[in-house]
Amino acid sequence: xxxxxxxxxxxxxxxxxxxxxxxxxxxxxxxxxxxxxxxxxxxxxxxxx
Length: 49
Description:
Blueprint: H1 2-14, H2 31-44
Helix pairs in contact: 1-2
């Protein structure tokens, strides 16, 4: 479970996200919260083309 959590953190950081949508650091989030943020963050912060 920790490996999955670390993988999600790394995936989000590669996309340029270091904090959750509510301002917490990614490494403070639970696995469930990280999975939600993985979907939520790119939708909230769409990068202009």
